[in-house]
Design a protein that fits this description.
There is one protein chain. This protein starts with a helix and ends with a strand. The protein has 828 residues and is mainly β. It is globular and about 100 Å long. It contains eight helices and 45 strands. InterPro entries: DUF5686. This is DUF5686 family protein. It comes from Chryseobacterium herbae.
C-alpha cells in the first residue's frame, strides 16, 4: 500500500525545465495544461516548473505563442525532472524569402518580405533583460577617443604648429590619403549594480579612469562625455544630442524608412536576416544602415546606424553607431557592445573639411543575475569621490581592457604628456576653456570673469562695467569665494557682490554659504527666484529694449544658506535672507507703500526659505562645490516655502508664500522636442509690490526663457498665479518639405505661453500706485508665435529669431501686440 500510494503521489505532481530547442536557453511565459483540460494550470515565470493536481497526471501540454505545442506523456517514472524543448514556429506569412541586392519596388509594403520580418520583430519587442532579474551586476568598459581628421601637409605647416610639430609623429594615414591625428583618449571602467525587487535600486560605480593629459581641463573632458546618450534600438525614438531620431526597429519605422532584405548571414553562430534600410526622404533626421535579425527568434542581433549626408545638426558632419546584443531568452536582450562615431566640424559640412572624429566604444561583460547584493553597496561612500580612487597602473589597464590599445591609441598618452610640457599648447587649451567656461585663469587659484558680463546698459546706470573673480584651484574644490564690482557711468555709483561657500561632505554635498550685495536689478523677471547672491538677472544690463524701462530696483541684500543632498539628485536647501529694496528711479517708478498708516519708500524684508529641489536622472561631473552637468532630458522640480518674519532685523512684514516649478524637455518621436515649463504659487498675506509675484515680462529684444515676450515689466502682479510655457522644436520636419527653403536647413519652432492669477484689493491698496496693477484674472493671458532657429552658414548655425503675438488684453495702454526677439542659441 505504501508503494502504491507513492506511485500515485508521483503522478499527482510533476516538475521540470523548459528550454528553446535551438539555443538551449530557458523559456518563460509557457502555458501548461494537465491531461485534456482546456484551461492552463500554470503560466511559467521561470525556466523551471512544478504542477500539482487532485487527479492523476497522465500527460502535460506545453503551449507558447510562436512555438510549436509539445505534449509529454507522464508516468510515475518520468514525473520528476521532465526536460521539455520547444521549437520556434516559422512565420506562416513568410512563404518564400527573396533576397535583393538592388532596391526593389513593391506595390505595397505587404509584398515586401522585409516587412513580414519586421512585423515579427515588433510583435516580439524585447525589453532590457536587466529588468527581469531580482538583482544583477555587470562590468562596463568605456573608451572615448578624439582624432583630428583630414589633415594635410599644408595644414601641418601652419604657424600655429611651430614648436608643436612633434605631434605629427603620432599621426596615421587614413583611407582617403589624408592624415588622422589622435588628440584625446579617455578610458573608464564601471561596476554596475541593480536591484528590482523588493525595491528598485541602481549603482554605477567608477572604479578606474585614465585620461590623456586632460585631468585638470574639465571642460574638454566634459565636452567629450556630453556628446553621448544611452539608446535602446527597440525604442521608437533614439536620443542623439537630445534630438529624436526615429529608430529603424521602432514599431512606426515603415513611416520613415524603406526596408530591403539583402542576405542571410551567420553572426556568432546564429543565422540572421540582413536587412538594409534607408529613409524615404533624405532631409529628415534619420539613419541608414543594416539590421541583423535572428531567423528563428526575430531578435535584433546587431545593427548599424549611419546618418545621411544631409544631416541637419549643428557642428555635426556625420554619426554612425554599431550595436551588438545578446539575447538570453525570447523576451529580453542584453547590451553587448556599442560603438558610436561622431564627426564634428565647426564651420563647413564638406567631406574634406578639417574635422574631429569623436569615437566612443562601450563593452558590457561579466553579467551575473539573482545573486544577493549587500544593501551597503547602494550607499554612497566617501572613497568614491576621492581622486586617488581611480589611480591605476599600466598593468591594471592591460588586464582590464577587453581589447588592447592600437599603436595610435598608445601614442596618445605619450603625445599628450609631451604637449603638457609645451607652453604654446597650454595657451591654446586655456583659450578654449575660457570661451567655454566664461572665466579666464589669471594665475594659480584665481579666475577672472564671467567675461561675457563685463558690459551692460540700463536706464538708471547708463553704461555699466562689471568685473568679477573667483577662487579656482581645481575641478573638485570643496570651497569657493566669488565677488564682483560694477560701476554705472550715469548714476556714478559703485555696486558690489561677494559670496563664499564651503562643502563639508562630497557624498551628501552638505554645504554652507554666505554673501552680500548692493546692486541695481530688474525684479519681476522670474517667478521662482534664487536667493543666491551671485544670481544675476538679464534685464538689469539689457543693451536694447522696446519702450522705456525705468522699473529698476536698488537692492541691499545679505544671505546665508545651508544645503544637503540626503538622496542622489534631491537637494534640501534653507536660506536666511535680509534685504532692503527701494526704487532705483523714484521719479518714474514707485515702490512706495503704506505701513501702519505711514508712507514708506524702502522695504525691509527678513525671510527664511525652505527649498526642495529634485533632478531625477541628471548626471554631473566632478564632486566639488560647483559641478558641471551633462546634457540629459532630466526634469527640474522645485517646491519652495518662504516665511517672512516681521521684527527680525527690522523686517516689515509677516508673510507666507508657497511656490512650485516643473520643467522638462520631452522628445516627441521624429517630430522634435517639446519644452514644458509650469509654475504655480500663492502669497497668503498682504505684501507690497517689492515682495509680490510679478508675471515675468521681457521688454528686451533678446530671448529669455520663461518670460512673456509681449508683457511690460510689472504689467501683471498676482497674489496667486499659474503659468504654462510650451515650446516645440520641430527640427526642420516641416520646412524640409518646402523646395529651396529646405536647402537653408532652417528649423521651425512653435510656442504658446499662458498665465492666470488673482490680486486682492488689499494687495492693491497697500501700494501708493497699487490700483494701476492687476492680475490676469478676467481671462487667461496668452501669447503665441513661431520662431526660426538654426540660422547661419555651414555647421555654424547658432542664431534664432522669434515672432511673438499678444493674444488678449489688447485694450491696455503702452502695450505691444507684436514683437520680434533674437539671440544666440548654441547647441546641436
Amino acid at each position: 500500500m505504501l508503494f502504491i500510494s507513492t506511485l500515485t503521489y508521483a503522478q499527482n505532481t510533476a516538475n521540470g525545465r523548459i528550454t528553446d530547442a535551438k539555443t538551449n536557453k530557458e523559456i518563460t511565459g509557457v502555458d501548461i495544461f494537465i491531461n485534456d483540460n482546456t484551461e492552463p494550470i500554470l503560466k511559467t515565470s521561470l525556466g523551471s516548473f512544478t504542477v500539482q493536481s487532485d487527479s492523476l497526471i497522465t500527460k502535460l501540454k506545453f503551449s507558447k505563442k510562436n512555438y510549436s505545442t509539445e505534449t509529454v506523456t507522464v508516468t510515475p517514472e518520468n514525473a520528476q525532472n521532465i526536460f521539455v524543448k520547444l521549437s520556434q514556429e516559422k512565420v506562416s506569412s513568410i512563404d518564400e524569402i527573396v533576397i535583393h541586392n538592388e532596391k526593389p519596388k513593391y506595390k505595397n509594403k505587404k509584398e515586401n518580405p522585409a516587412y513580414a520580418i519586421m512585423q515579427e520583430v515588433w510583435k516580439r519587442k524585447r525589453n532590457n533583460g536587466l529588468e527581469k532579474f531580482n538583482t544583477y551586476t555587470y562590468k562596463e568598459y568605456e573608451k572615448i577617443q578624439f582624432d583630428a581628421n583630414n589633415l594635410d601637409s599644408a595644414f601641418m605647416s601652419k604657424k600655429i604648429f611651430n614648436k608643436l610639430d612633434f605631434i605629427f609623429e603620432y599621426a596615421d594615414s587614413t583611407a582617403s590619403g589624408k592624415i588622422g591625428l589622435p588628440i584625446f583618449l579617455n578610458e573608464s571602467i564601471y561596476e554596475n549594480f541593480g536591484e528590482n525587487k523588493p525595491g528598485k535600486k541602481t549603482k554605477r560605480l567608477l572604479v578606474a579612469q585614465k585620461t590623456s593629459g586632460f585631468q585638470d581641463n574639465q571642460v574638454i573632458t566634459i565636452t567629450a562625455k556630453n556628446l553621448y546618450r544611452d539608446i535602446n534600438i527597440y525604442d521608437n525614438t533614439l536620443n542623439y544630442f537630445d534630438i529624436g531620431f526615429p529608430s529603424p526597429v521602432g514599431s512606426n519605422g515603415f513611416s520613415t524608412y524603406d526596408y530591403n532584405l539583402t542576405d542571410t548571414i551567420s553572426i556568432h553562430g546564429e543565422n540572421a536576416y540582413k536587412i538594409r534600410y534607408q529613409p524615404k526622404r533624405k532631409e529628415v533626421l534619420a539613419f541608414q544602415g543594416y539590421l541583423y535579425i535572428d531567423t528563428d527568434s526575430y531578435a535584433v542581433l546587431g545593427a548599424t546606424l549611419k546618418s545621411t549626408q544631409k544631416i541637419n545638426v549643428n557642428f555635426i558632419n556625420s554619426i554612425s553607431t554599431e550595436l551588438e546584443y545578446d539575447n538570453p531568452d525570447e523576451n529580453t536582450f542584453l547590451p553587448k557592445k556599442f560603438i558610436t562615431e561622431i564627426e564634428l566640424t565647426p564651420f563647413a559640412k564638406k567631406r574634406t573639411s578639417k574635422s574631429i572624429i569623436a569615437k566612443r566604444s562601450v563593452d558590457y561583460s561579466q553579467y551575473e543575475f539573482n545573486k544577493p547584493i549587500d544593501d551597503k553597496t547602494f550607499t554612497r561612500k566617501a572613497e568614491e569621490y576621492d581622486a586617488k580612487f581611480v589611480d591605476k597602473d599600466d598593468a591594471y589597464w592591460v588586464k582590464a581592457r577587453p581589447d588592447s590599445l592600437s599603436k595610435a591609441e598608445q601614442g596618445v598618452y605619450e603625445m599628450l604628456d609631451r604637449l603638457q610640457q609645451t607652453p604654446k599648447f597650454n595657451r591654446i587649451v586655456k583659450i578654449y576653456e575660457t570661451l567655454a567656461s566664461g572665466y579666464y585663469n589669471a594665475f594659480k587659484g584665481i579666475d577672472i570673469g564671467p567675461i561675457f558680463s563685463i558690459y551692460g546698459k540700463n536706464e538708471v546706470e547708463g553704461d555699466r562695467i562689471r568685473l568679477g573673480a573667483r577662487t579656482y584651484f581645481g575641478q573638485n574644490d570643496p570651497w569657493r569665494v566669488q565677488f564682483y564690482t560694477a560701476y554705472g557711468f550715469k548714476d556714478q555709483k559703485v555696486k558690489y557682490g561677494a559670496e563664499a561657500r564651503y562643502m563639508f561632505n562630497r557624498v551628501n554635498r552638505f554645504m554652507i554659504g554666505a554673501g552680500t550685495k548692493r546692486d541695481i536689478e530688474q525684479l519681476g523677471v522670474q517667478l521662482t527666484t534664487d536667493d543666491g547672491i551671485m544670481a544675476r538677472t538679464f534685464a538689469s544690463s539689457t543693451l536694447f529694449a522696446r519702450g522705456e524701462n525705468a522699473s529698476l530696483s536698488s537692492i541691499n541684500k545679505t544671505n546665508i544658506f545651508a544645503a544637503i543632498e540626503p538622496w542622489k539628485n534631491f537637494q534640501i536647501r534653507v536660506d536666511g535672507t535680509l534685504q532692503s529694496i527701494k526704487s532705483a528711479n523714484p521719479e518714474k517708478f514707485s515702490l512706495m507703500y503704506f505701513r501702519d498708516g505711514d508712507l514708506r519708500k524702502t522695504l525691509n524684508d527678513s525671510h527664511v526659505t525652505l527649498s526642495l529641489i529634485a533632478r531625477p536622472g541628471a548626471k554631473f561631473s566632478q564632486t566639488g562645490v560647483d559641478r558641471y552637468e551633462h546634457g540629459t532630458l532630466a526634469p527640474t522640480i522645485i517646491l519652495k516655502y518662504t516665511r517672512g518674519i516681521e521684527g527680525l532685523f527690522n523686517g516689515d512684514f509677516n508673510y507666507n508664500r508657497l511656490q512650485f516649478m516643473f520643467y522638462k524637455p520631452v522628445l516627441i518621436g521624429s517630430w522634435g522636442k517639446t519644452l514644458v515649463s509650469f509654475e504655480a504659487g500663492k502669497t497668503f498675506d498682504t505684501v507690497p509690490l517689492a515682495l509680490q509675484n510679478v508675471v515675468p515680462g521681457n521688454q528686451s529684444y533678446s530671448l529669455a526663457q520663461n518670460t512673456f515676450a509681449q508683457l511690460n515689466y510689472y504689467e501683471f502682479v498676482a497674489d496667486t498665479y499659474t503659468t504654462l510655457h510650451l515650446e516645440h522644436h520641430f527640427n526642420g520636419k516641416i520646412l524640409s518639405y518646402i523646395p529651396l527653403i529646405k536647402k537653408l536647413k532652417l528649423r521651425e519652432i512653435a510656442f504658446i505661453r499662458s498665465a492666470y492669477g488673482t490680486l486682492s484689493d488689499a494687495s492693491k491698496a497697500i501700494n501708493v500706485d497699487g490700483f494701476k496693477y492687476s492680475a490676469p484674472s478676467e481671462q487667461i493671458y496668452f501669447e503665441y508665435g513661431f520662431g526660426i532657429e538654426n540660422i547661419g552658414i555651414g555647421n555654424l548655425r547658432i542664431f534664432r529669431v522669434d515672432f511673438n503675438w499678444r493674444g488678449n488684453y489688447l485694450d491696455r495702454p503702452d502695450i505691444s501686440t507684436f514683437g520680434v526677439k533674437a539671440g544666440f542659441q548654441v547647441g546641436f
